[in-house]
Amino acid sequence: MNFVIAPCFFLIHARLLPPQDSLWLAVLPLLASAYGFCRTDAKTADNFFLGFPSYWNIVVFYLYVLQAPLWINAFLIIALSILVFAPIKFIYPSRSPRFRAQTNVLGALWGGVVLYMIYRLPQSDRALAFASLFFPAYYTALSLWLEYRRLMTQSSPRG
C-alpha cells in the first residue's frame, strides 16, 4: 500500500500530473508494480531487485516537493514504469553484497534529511530537496555501474 497504491492516489490528489492524463498515468505504476510484485525473480539470488523497484513513494515525494512541470512528472512516471520491466539489477540496500555499509550510511543520512523535509511540509526547501537527491542519484549510478560490470564480465572471453 505505502510503496505503490498511496503514492498513485497522491499523484491525482496533489495534481502532480497533467489533468487530461492524470488517471491513466497514475495507473501505470500500479500496473507495472503488480507485474513486478508477482515475479518470482523480482529479488535475485545474488540480492538485487530486477527492474526498477517499487519506490513510488519516494518518486512521488520528490515530485510534490520539487513541483516540477507536470509534463516532466508525466515523463518520469512513464519512464520508471517501463524500467520495472527492464532486466536491470538495482541494489537491494540491506542485502547488497557490495557497498552495503556506505549505501546504508548514506541512506540513513538521506532518510534523516527526508524526515526533516516531511516535518517542514507544506513548506519546502527546494535547495535541500535537490541536495537530498544525491542519495537517489548515488543509488541509481551504483546500481547501473554494478550492472554494467556484471554484463561486461559475462561477455568477456574469460567470464
Could you walk me through the main structural features you see in this protein, from its secondary elements to its overall organization?
The protein is mainly alpha-helical and 159 residues long. The protein has one domain (5-155). 64% of the residues lie in helices and 4% in strands. The chain has seven helices and two strands. The chain has a two-stranded antiparallel ribbon. The longest helix is centred in the last third of the chain and has 22 residues, at 134-155. The chain is globular, with a radius of gyration of 17 Å. 22% of the residues are buried.
Q: Gyration radius, to the nearest Å?
A: 17 Å
Q: What is the typical, i.e. mean, pLDDT?
A: 92
Q: So how many helices?
A: 7
The helix/strand series, from N terminus to C terminus, equals HHEHHEHHH
Number of domains: 1
Name the shape in a single word: globular
**Largest beta sheet: what is the strand line-up?**
1-2
- Broad structural category: mainly alpha
Measure the end-to-end span: 41 Å
Quaternary structure classification: single chain
Q: What's the helical proportion of residues? A: 55-70%
Number of strands: 2
Strand residue content: under 5%
Q: Which regions have little confidence, pLDDT < 50, spanning 5+ residues?
A: none
Task: Please render the helix and strand layout as text.
Elements (H helix, E strand, L loop, with lengths): L4 H9 L8 H17 L9 E3 L5 H11 L3 H14 L5 E3 L8 H21 L5 H7 L1 H22 L4
Antiparallel strand pairs: 1-2
Helix pairs in contact: 1-2, 1-3, 2-4, 5-7
